Amino acid sequence: MSASRIGQMLPSRSVSVLNGGNVWFFGGGAQHPAGYLVSGVRSMLIPSQLSPFFPQSIALSGVSERRRGLAQEKMTENGVFSRDKVLTIDTMNPTVKNVEYAVRGPIVQRAIQIEKELREGVKKPFTEVIKANIGDAHAMGQQPITFFRQVLALCSYPELLNENMFPEDAKNRARRILQACGGGSVGAYSASQGIDCVRQDVARYIERRDGGVPCDPDNVYLTTGASDGIVTMLKLLVCGEGASRTGVMISIPQYPLYSAALAELGAVQVNYYLNEEKCWSMDLSELERSLAEARKHCNPKALCIINPGNPTGQVQSRQCIEDVIRFAAKERLFLMADEVYQDNVYAEGCQFHSFKKVLFELGPEYSDNVELASFHSTSKCYMGECGFRGGYMEVINMDPEVQAQLSKLVSVRLCPPVPGQALMDLVVNSPQPGEPSHTTFMKERTATLSLLAEKAKLTEQILNTVPGITCNPVQGAMYSFPNISLPEKSIKEAKALGQAPDMFYCMKLLEETGICLVPGSGFGQKDGTYHFRMTILPPTDKLKILLAKVKEFHQKFTQQYS
């Protein structure tokens, strides 16, 4: 039978059948060759009136309908062929399915739904959701630093340089940044490693911070927030299969960026536990235990440290940092120092010590050999400029051939956001004494950090008045991570629902009070212990309300499940 005769037998709706090596489309008897081969097609359904001429399903070359997860074609009720999705939950990258990020997980998604319900007039036992789940300072009401926004405004709209409303030092900073940009615009791409003059300013900042320890601008990479630099370094580190697969040691509790990145890269997460009884300090014997256990099934190559700590709010002592560096040198581990909270130190007797400074103070035995990458960001400290995605990474003692590969890798993403680079420059090159903006800048910076210190103390004090809640001092960063005692009845109910007990607790807290916290299980914790993380960022009046509601809820929850 001819193709045209077959077409005349089909309904006027457009369908397709095989004709030799082509697919022919018919509509009311008119044939239209599509002009492509069908070697990738596995089966077609043919209407019953054509069954004498074609089998109901035509298979080509013995290719199965589902081989390699390819789509199956089938006719819909209106006579049009449809195909299963090429990308399905079964055919997608399996490592992505292992990624979890508690800070924006189910609790936060439910909080967003509740906010929508409140706007629609749904009655709740509260009038607003107070989010204390993420370290987003400006979203919590923290005001931006005036000088930073002035310079960024000038960079974004250079016509303002002709106005008299901006101080001269802000104009000079903007002119310098714009002169370093292609076409004098922050809308142009920069060099992949970052704007040269900004990297030079970062290097000088590091030298001042570390008491004169030299910093080569060629070892500085500007990044899209600190997270970009951390993930980039992990990409360089991860390799091997089976017992040779790269292991990366991370603290527990940890910031979920690390576990998520390792899951996506298919690396082995090697947990070491911080000592809660000693204010979340690092313990050398625990590092040794963790490493020895990991070497039985993978190849540990890197050790990650967050100092000051997230989610635990500790500030590691200088002695602790020395011990970690010696341990890394002895065990041949690459050090990754996440130092984005380096200005957020509140507790009396605590001080931030950069890993690089301590490394060089230990002498050439260590400073010439230990490989280190350290990270900083515009998102935390007194700046809180999360949305600009500014940051930097400095690498120390990196193999030159590997560093060439690093430069290649960062070139793939073209460059970090140029406004974020400009902001990073202002953080490391802030107004100096004698400049017009210095007094206002110092006043705003000091006020922001002082208020954070007050809220850190307030949080610790109020939480420790609640029976069943124990909170270590919030020495630094922006979070508290209190230990909560949960009744056995609530633990059993949570497990029956397939939830972690502290997830169950935090979800009920959200539904009954509008308080959005993150369960400790999203950060990791010792078996049998339960926690939640909350930021200290809400305005003081809201923070007091939040803490009072947590106190009331915990007492009610304990009574309900006892």
TrEMBL record:
<dbReference type="GO" id="GO:0042853">
    <property type="term" value="P:L-alanine catabolic process"/>
</dbReference>
<dbReference type="InterPro" id="IPR015424">
    <property type="entry name" value="PyrdxlP-dep_Trfase"/>
</dbReference>
<dbReference type="GO" id="GO:0005737">
    <property type="term" value="C:cytoplasm"/>
</dbReference>
<keyword id="KW-0808">Transferase</keyword>
<dbReference type="InterPro" id="IPR045088">
    <property type="entry name" value="ALAT1/2-like"/>
</dbReference>
<comment type="subunit">
    <text>Homodimer.</text>
</comment>
<dbReference type="GO" id="GO:0004021">
    <property type="term" value="F:L-alanine:2-oxoglutarate aminotransferase activity"/>
</dbReference>
<protein>
    <recommendedName>
        <fullName>alanine transaminase</fullName>
        <ecNumber>2.6.1.2</ecNumber>
    </recommendedName>
</protein>
<dbReference type="InterPro" id="IPR015421">
    <property type="entry name" value="PyrdxlP-dep_Trfase_major"/>
</dbReference>
<dbReference type="InterPro" id="IPR004839">
    <property type="entry name" value="Aminotransferase_I/II_large"/>
</dbReference>
<dbReference type="InterPro" id="IPR015422">
    <property type="entry name" value="PyrdxlP-dep_Trfase_small"/>
</dbReference>
<comment type="similarity">
    <text>Belongs to the class-I pyridoxal-phosphate-dependent aminotransferase family. Alanine aminotransferase subfamily.</text>
</comment>
<comment type="pathway">
    <text>Amino-acid degradation; L-alanine degradation via transaminase pathway; pyruvate from L-alanine: step 1/1.</text>
</comment>
<keyword id="KW-0663">Pyridoxal phosphate</keyword>
<dbReference type="GO" id="GO:0030170">
    <property type="term" value="F:pyridoxal phosphate binding"/>
</dbReference>
<dbReference type="Pfam" id="PF00155">
    <property type="entry name" value="Aminotran_1_2"/>
</dbReference>
<comment type="function">
    <text>Catalyzes the reversible transamination between alanine and 2-oxoglutarate to form pyruvate and glutamate.</text>
</comment>
<keyword id="KW-0032">Aminotransferase</keyword>
<feature type="domain" description="Aminotransferase class I/classII large">
    <location>
        <begin position="164"/>
        <end position="548"/>
    </location>
</feature>
